[in-house]
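Hi F.,

I've been meaning to write this up properly since the lab meeting, where we talked about keeping a consistent format for the predictions we share between groups. The idea is simple: the sequence comes first, exactly as it goes in, then the structure tokens exactly as they come out, then a line or two of notes. No screenshots and no reformatting. I'm using this chain as the first example so we have something concrete to point to.
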Amino acid sequence: MSTVVTTTTPPPPPAPSASVGRSYRWLIVTFGFLAIVSSVRLISGAHEIDSVGTIQAALIATCPILLAALGGVWAERAGIVNIGLEGQMILGTWGAAYFTYFYGPWGGLLGAALMGALGGLLHAVATVTFGVDHIVSGVALNIIGAGAVAFLAEAYFRDLDGGGIKQLTGLETPPKVEIPWLGDAAAELAGKHWFVISDLAAVVAALTRNMSIMVYLVAALVLFTAWILWRTTFGLRLRSCGENPQAAETLGVNVYLFKYVAVVISGVFAGLGGYMLVLVASSGFVTGQTGGRGYIGLAAMIFGNWRPFGAAGAATMFGYTDAMQLRNADAVHALLLLVAVLLLVFTVLRLRQGDRKNAILFAAVGVGFLAWFLLSDEVPREFAGMTPYVATLLVLALGTQRLRMPAADGKPYRKGQAG
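Output, unedited:
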């Protein structure tokens, strides 16, 4: 008689969660980017590329684009392409101006959200209920939004103090955050121009010296969107409508309702982007002041892979290039070197991933920017105004190879198809 003795192997230690791994990755990427910017700053001597003023201008320029991008995330995760973000943002500018004039900045915030929601509702009715092509509906909404705001501005602003047929100025702005002891100390440290340390200090000083509270609210909305869409049952059901609405319907999800909610919330975010343009990024309302930022927000959403944090990173890049047109010529010239270095870094990453074709493309464009920097002393001021749009084209041309949109994004859906 023999006895079989079994030995149990102790379980392996638990692996770190994916979220922790992503957090470390984002920290590494952030530090690496700061190191690159700091190196370019020291090499070129253009300390304006990340001064306190530049960072403040970049953050304010980023927020309208980021809000449009977040609106796109909400709509397209539910399967609705929202080209109408520009029109919804335009509606938000009028709502912000009108309601702020009569009810103050917080009333203006609500008014901008309501006007954007109205634009989202129109888009939802057209695409969800009547099955209109999403692109056609979005383009129509952009035209309607621009025309409606031009009419409303002439009808309601011409007789107001500071008003006219195309503008309304002298509006009360939202409060600002000021932490003097921290902001002043950080600004002093930023002025020493040390490697990385001064760059981090400039960021702290920018956030604590006369910064609009709306910038913090936008950051909170990024976190809110990420939590709702990826950490809640509601978010799971909403995203299922953008991946496989037929399967979601068989599980009892009211697909129409979730699509409506997502597109209306998308309009709210775009409307808040209009609020930022009127009361934070500028000193009042002017017709046509969106300047295509709704479209740039859409590009930021795509480059960010239809995710909130990715969209935030892309919107920051667009906002930074937008803010650079307000800087001096040396800072704009140094931007060429920064773009060249970043493209060459992407080249190395592509080579490590075995993607030689795109690596060659990145390298060629990067060498072109480097040659431009070395062979020139300054960049024409007209180019600085074009940088947000040039950056949009470069991103969409070079950065979309590994992106994946929701599977049912833009596809028609009718109730009962699951059967």
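Notes:
Confidence is low (pLDDT under 50) at residues 1-11.
Residues 348 and 359 are 7 Å apart (CA to CA).

If this format works for you, I'll send the rest the same way.

G.
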